Amino acid sequence: MQRFQSATELLQILEQQPKKLLNISNYRTVNTIDYTHLRGLLAKGKWQSADKETWELICQALAKPKGSYIFSSDLEKVPCQDLQTIDLLWVNYSHKRFGFSVQTLIYKNVNGDYGIFCNQVGWHIYNSSYANSEFNFSLKVPIDHLPSRIWIGGSQPWRYPDALAVKLAACGISSLPTQKC
What we know:
By secondary structure, this protein is mostly helical.
């Protein structure tokens, strides 16, 4: 795999992809989760609220109580349709700056080096007790700063990007998702 020389080069490639509005009614999820609220938040650029809603939707997809931490081992249990819908919404409404698939692309581009990955997306290497303090909820942050990892539990947060990459591959979710109109 060829490495990108900079985040700017990656952004240029992402911006070359066609932009289409996402019709989430085409996506049926196992748990009949309603993604309308997340879509509305993302469409309005309310990134922090969308980040929290993403956490709540993943909890719902896993049948976990709202606000539960998600462990790397939980990611393998998230239904592919739910993960794909959340990712497509983030990618579409952030103009391909944010989303799980973009995070995975960056993680693969740095050959799975968690420290370099965190540096590129603007995260601290370790989750702090003030997790929200490391996140800036705007489009002025590094490519794929969001969704955040505030909902990741456990003492080994460096396992999260790898577990996410494995799950996306198992679901057939590409690093540059295409959207249905």
